[in-house]
Design a protein that fits this description.
This protein has two domains: about 110 residues; about 110 residues, Orthogonal Bundle (Arc Repressor Mutant, subunit A), CATH 1.10.10. It is built from 13 helices and no strands. It is globular and about 65 Å long. It starts with a helix and ends with a helix.
Length: about 250
């Protein structure tokens, strides 16, 4: 596809309108604030972004809502990749990005997308602040956490994680418990429940499918574990928090 004609036309229009794109150094300095976990700076940045949101941005759609959604999706992808580079688990970063893009897809007006941009930036910044605090965690444990999230649907065991790291199971068990403040078995269950919470809110998958996909032996085992950790059954959790999420999305 030859786009030279259209490209030259758009460059001419931008020149005539004195359109100036945001300098890449300025844009990435804001991304670096997120990567560094500087929550207060990110909050200040967003106050400025809110006031000048449309300055220096290209037009991706004639529909203003869709235009903002496209920019949001691009920004979410960049932030996820930058945070991965800063030490965030790639599975957490990409999943969090997916969650926010789905929220953006449900926005009803352009201003909602702008406000959601602030939520996205602060959420990633706060998580990166926590990552920096736990940067003393060993490479073995960080890789084990990543391994756990990549394999939640399997019958995960300490021995499997140890083999993945070429470590003695007893050694990995002591190291993991010391650095993560809980046994690896408890962490696996915690990760499954946290993932289930997101699936319940942002999808309509049946409970039986969620149970299987997260490595539970049965739907009843999933429901019992979920209730012990949250005080609610999966059905109650989905009903309560899906309604809250929908109400938030419908507000002007």
């Amino acid at each position: 596809m030859n786009t030279n004609k259209e490209l030259n036309y758009r460059l001419f229009v931008q020149l005539e309108e004195d359109f100036q794109r945001t300098e890449i150094s300025s844009e990435f300095s804001r991304y670096d604030d997120i990567k560094n976990g500087d929550v207060e700076k990110v909050r200040e940045n967003f106050d400025d972004i809110r006031l000048h949101y449309y300055e220096g941005k290209g037009q991706l759609s004639d529909n203003l809502l869709r235009n903002n959604q496209y920019h949001f999706a691009i920004g979410a992808g960049i932030i996820a990749r930058i945070c991965i580079d800063g030490g965030m688990s790639h599975n957490i970063a990409y999943t969090l990005s997916d969650i926010y893009i789905r929220k953006c897809d449900s926005c009803k007006d352009p201003d909602q997308v702008i406000e959601l941009t602030g939520d996205l930036m602060l959420d990633f910044a706060e998580r990166m602040r926590d990552v920096k605090k736990t940067s003393s965690i060993s490479l073995h444990v960080r890789r084990t956490v990543d391994y756990i999230y990549r394999n939640l649907g399997t019958a995960l065991t300490l021995e499997m994680a140890a083999e993945h790291e070429n470590l003695n199971p007893s050694y990995l068990s002591r190291l993991f418990s010391k650095e993560m403040k809980m046994p690896i078995k408890a962490y696996i269950l915690k990760a499954r429940i946290a993932t289930a919470q997101n699936i319940l809110i942002f999808s309509d998958f049946p409970l039986s499918e969620i149970a299987v996909s997260l490595g539970f032996s049965s739907q009843s085992a999933f429901s019992a574990a979920f209730r012990r950790h949250t005080g609610m059954t999966p059905f109650q959790y989905r009903s309560r928090f899906t309604d809250v999420y929908s109400l938030h999305q419908e507000q002007p």
